[in-house]
Amino acid sequence: MKELIRTIDLSLWYGEKQALTDVNLQIAPNKVTALIGPSGCGKSTLIRCFNRMNDVIPGCRVKGQVLFHSKNIYGQNVDASEVRKKIGMVFQKPNPFPKSIYENVAYGQRVAGIKSNEKLDEIVEKSLKRAALWDEVSDRLHEPAMSLSGGQQQRLCIARALSIEPEIILMDEPCSALDPIATAKIEDLIRVLIKNYTVTIVTHNMQQAARVSDYTAYMYLGKLIEFGSTKQIFENPEEELTENYITGRFG
């Protein structure tokens, strides 16, 4: 399979506690890859390795490689902020900035030095359209982001991630704080986004993984137990641990 990200013998420790052990995984371009497994198995830790978000945690140590376009992002002279421009992230709980809807989306480009209001208007509109939010907020762009519903706030956070033109969007349980209607909108959006982006999603919801993903990785106790097409993982898992989790025997 083609790959945009590849991990090679990736291990990670928080102080003395090992959270990942020798993970070897490929992320295919313009596909959705879901990471599933019980709580505390290393799913969120793994995707945070993809854009070096773990760097900010004291005592965190990484061994192995994460290749992005065949270049190790943990290599010497790699700027983590440059990595994060290409690999955006959406978190479990919507976390809009305490600014207007417009400024939430424009923020990244303002920081990057774009001053033209015309250019910013264009970026904000394009990003909100791609996040399937424009029609709902186009007449209230200068209202506070906090005035939006939870589902709208999460789509705003997706628009904010898209505004800096990443290649990959990491989503860490993006629907866990949302109701079923808002969840369905995010799931529909994920399937649209892969026309232009690559999406990796952590989810505790196996039905969601089955609905939205092309590939699924099952993790347990910091190890990658099985990886394959979502259809194969859910219908014909090769590992007993995977089958036990999928069938609800534990987890």
**What is the fold named in CATH at topology level?**
Rossmann fold
Average the pLDDT over all residues and give the rounded result: 95
Number of DSSP-assigned strands: 10
Q: What Rg do the Cα atoms give? A: 18 Å
CATH class descriptor = Alpha Beta
> Uncertain spans, ≥5 residues at pLDDT below 50?
none
Identify the strand order in the major beta sheet. Answer: 6-7-8-3-9-10
The separation of the N and C termini measures 30 Å
- How many discrete structural domains? 1
Question: Structural class, from secondary structure content?
Answer: alpha/beta
User: What overall geometry do the principal axes of the alpha carbons give?
Assistant: globular
Strand content: 25-35%
Largest sheet features: 6 strands, mixed
Number of helices: 10
Q: Can you give the helix content as a percent range?
A: 25-40%
CATH architecture annotation name: 3-Layer(aba) Sandwich
Order of helices and strands: EEEHEEHEHHHHEHEHEEHH
Could you give me the name of the CATH homologous superfamily? P-loop containing nucleotide triphosphate hydrolases
